[in-house]
Amino acid sequence: MSLKSDTPIEVTLEKSPSGTWVAPGNTRGQIQPWQRLWFVAGIIWFLGLAGCYFMLMPNQQSIERKMVFSITEEVKRYDGMAFAGESPKKIFETAASEGYAAWIAGVRTKYRIGYEGKAGFDRIELEFRDALSGLPTKRNLGVMICFVAWMIPMSLLYAIGLIIDWIRRGARGVKERRDHA
Question: Is the pTM of this model over 0.85?
Answer without folding.
Answer: no
